[in-house]
Amino acid sequence: MKEVKIGVIGAGWMAKAHTMAFRNAVSVFGTEFGVPVFEVIADINEALAKQAKESLNYNRYTTDWKEVITDPTIDLIDISTPNSMHYEMAKAALEHGKNVFCEKPLSISGKQSRELADLAKEKGVVNYAGYSNVMNPANAYVEELIKTGALGQVMRVTATYDQDMLLDPDLPITWRHINRLAGSGALGDLGCHLLSVFHVLLGDIEKVSGMQSIVIPERAVSKGSKEKAVVENDDIIQFLCKYKNGAIGSIGSSRVATGRKNYFYYEIQGTQGSVIYDLQRMGEVQVYFKKDEGRDCGYRTVHLNPYHKGFSAFQPAGGIAIGFDDMKILQAKEILSAVTTGTDYACTFEMGAKVDSIVDAVLKSIETGEWEEV
Ligand SMILES: NC(=O)c1ccc[n+]([C@@H]2O[C@H](COP(=O)([O-])OP(=O)(O)OC[C@H]3O[C@@H](n4cnc5c(N)ncnc54)[C@H](O)[C@@H]3O)[C@@H](O)[C@H]2O)c1
Questions:
Q1: Which CATH number is 3-133's, of 3.40.50.150, 3.30.70.1060, 3.40.50.720, 3.30.470.10?
Q2: Is the pTM higher than 0.70?
Q3: How far does residue 103's CA lie from ligand 1's centre (Å)?
Q4: Residue by residue, what is the 3-state secondary structure of 313-326?
Q5: Beta-ladder partners of 236
Q6: For 152, which of 2, 164, 177, 253 is 20 to 30 Å away at the CA?
Q7: From CA 50, how far away is CA 42, in angstroms rounded?
Q8: Nearest CA to ligand 1 atom 23
Q9: Which atom of ligand 1 is nearest to the CA of 10?
């Protein structure tokens, strides 16, 4: 049993989700992959840091993130701050030889993310990018269908990740609307989750051609204020892409998708079979196999069950619901295991840098009006 001392930076939603996940990873998987010690939580907002220390049961709190990174006793730095801070914080953590778990996106530009991926490789430490959808047993099932050839040659992917969280024009501006803080809009916030899953399922993208729409071009600087600020990035993004394996696709994302709450949806069509997946019905994958053509042809529903990688850690029988926090528990276990025993993982900084280079290429194609190579 090896202890992993954790220092978290940022005390918001993800800090809470990660802490619950690290704690539950021990209940679900036992102690053999490592035992988290919740040493320090940092937030620029002292009241939040103090409250999180109490509610999440950390040994101490601070308002200075650099103190977490320079603490020689910390084994793992967990970066759960807004996007624009990831680069500086991850770079400093890597330079101090720390293992790093950094929320997505890795940074606000492909260039910064490439630098982080190269530095992480040079330092030889754990470098984990927070793409938790990759851990979903449904995606592991689809990966198996693709890799075993059950779908044949993948020809086409259609996907969208839609929410309507920012549909209300009276909501004030946030860091998510400003490029120097967020990097991009719906694409970097939501669409990148699809890109991370497709990186595992389909490999690298060769080229992209995109368009965007800013539906609400300005918002109040604060709730109720008459003063307005400009929304700088995509409320809606849509792009065509060509994968290196020959598949072509259309991928989109919207943060103003009226009626959509967390609609992470994809359809993958292969020469021998196809799949449809919607995260809002997390435990169900729709599959169609050409070999079953005949009287009862058509899509059918596969319910996630212990056969699918990751599922049996939670439930002993198929069809019992698993959820968002369970993906985080699988992620936490993978991180602990990487730190204590050096096991491999898909969501490296290298993968994070590749996702961010796709985002950059899509944004460039919007500017130039041309197809852009990734
Ligand atoms: N993987 C996922 O499913 C998922 C889901 C939501 C958010 N995210 C990502 O997680 C990150 C955090 O998002 P969130 O929703 O938890 O945000 P949040 O606003 O809830 O929390 C961020 C916290 O960081 C703090 N902070 C800001 N500047 C700081 C600084 N200099 N030093 C210390 N603390 C500072 C803020 O005060 C805030 O409490 C974002 O990059 C986001 O894209 C990932």
A1: 3.40.50.720
A2: yes
A3: 8
A4: HCCCCCCCCCCHHH
A5: 213, 254
A6: 253
A7: 9
A8: 10
A9: 24
Q: Is 324 a pocket residue for ligand 1 (Cβ < 6 Å)?
A: no
311 near 305, Cβ under 8 Å? yes
Strand partners, 208: 241, 372
CATH 3.40.50.720 domain extents, the chain: 3-133
Write the DSSP string, 37-63.
EEEEEE-SSHHHHHHHHHHHT-SEEES
* Tens-level pLDDT at each residue, the chain (374 residues): 799 999 999 999 999 999 999 999 999 999 999 999 999 999 999 999 999 999 999 999 999 999 999 999 999 999 999 999 999 999 999 999 999 999 999 999 999 999 999 999 999 999 999 999 999 999 999 999 999 999 999 999 999 999 999 999 999 999 999 999 999 999 999 999 999 999 999 999 999 999 999 999 999 999 999 999 999 999 999 999 999 999 999 999 999 999 999 999 999 999 999 999 999 999 999 999 999 999 989 999 999 999 999 999 999 999 999 999 999 999 999 999 999 999 999 999 999 999 999 999 999 999 999 999 99
Residue 74 has phi, psi (to 5 degrees) of -80, 130
CB distance 95 to 120 below 8 Å: no
- Spatial distance between the Cα atoms of 192 and 135, rounded to a whole number of angstroms: 15
Output the residue whose Cα is nearest ligand 1's atom 3.
Answer: 132
- Determine whether the shortest distance from the Cβ of 83 to ligand 1 is under 6 A: yes
Beta strands in 119-187, from DSSP E residues, in sequence order: 127-129, 154-162
CATH code reported for the domain at 136-318+349-368:
3.30.360.10
Are 29 and 1 within 8 A, CB to CB?
A: no
Q: How far is CA 112 from the centre of its chain?
A: 18
Question: What residue spans in the chain does CATH classification 3.30.360.10 cover?
Answer: 136-318+349-368
Q: Check: CB of residue 299 under 8 Å from CB of residue 318.
A: no
Of ligand 1's atoms, which has the minimum distance to the CA of residue 324?
3
Q: Is the CB of 348 under 6 A from ligand 1?
A: no
User: What is the whole-number distance in angstroms between the Cα of residue 10 and the centre of ligand 1?
Assistant: 6
